[in-house]
Amino acid sequence: MKDIRNTKPLPARFNGHKITQSKDQYPCIAEGKGHKMVHVLVWEREHGPKPPGYDIHHKDFDKTNWVHDNLELLTKSDHKRVHAGWIKTKGEWSHKPCTKCHELLPLSNFYLKKGPTKCTYSKCKQCQIQIRIEWARKNPELAAEKQRDWHKNNPEKSRAIKDRQNARRKGKKRIRTDKRIIWERANYQKRKATRTDMRD
Length: 200
Ligand SMILES: [Zn+2]
Ligand SMILES: [Zn+2]
Hints:
- It contains 5 helices and 9 strands; from the N terminus they run ββββαββαβββααα.
- The strands form 3 sheets. It has a 4-stranded antiparallel beta sheet with strand order 1-2-3-4. Strands 7-8-9 form a 3-stranded antiparallel beta sheet, with no helix packed on it. It has a two-stranded antiparallel ribbon with strand order 5-6.
- The chain has 3 domains: 1-84, Alpha-Beta Complex (Homing Intron 3 (I-Ppo) Encoded Endonuclease, Chain A), CATH 3.90.75.20; 90-153, Wheat Germ Agglutinin (Isolectin 2), domain 1 (2-Layer Sandwich); 166-200.
- It is of the alpha+beta class.
- Helix 3 packs across helix 4 (140-153) and helix 4 (140-153) crosses helix 5.
- It is rod-shaped, with a radius of gyration of 33 Å.
- It binds zinc ion (2 copies).
């Protein structure tokens, strides 16, 4: 997570209003009974009221730098992604860092969560597999039970896996028998040859 920090000393006033800091360290001024964040005021001066569901982001990640060029309107989810280190390619989110190995990886390297949200897990596929293998090594009985349950609950996938395993086994057998036939033939010829030698 990219950290937002106040790097410069705050000016005391904005538009004649005394500047205070919100709980999450955003410079604010009093407005009515509540507070208004200064960077939001600066953005709204140019664009009108901030639409609901959106945040105003500091491009340089400095909460005190509220100059207009440093501000950007982002949806709340895009804003979270920017701070989590996601990267865009050709205007589309394409890469994000894994929370375990911290590698910046293409989104295809993350498993999709179940459900309609199309969210991906925070750890990459490789890390998730690693975690699962380590867990199974420590809990062999539970792992075997889990595997049995999975096969019971996913009959179609289970059958596909078993078919694939059988096909592989059959394939191996065929190769072995071919080799065996060739070996047997060669042996037969050899034996035949020695036998005739003996006869002569
Ligand atoms: Zn931000
Ligand atoms: Zn990882």
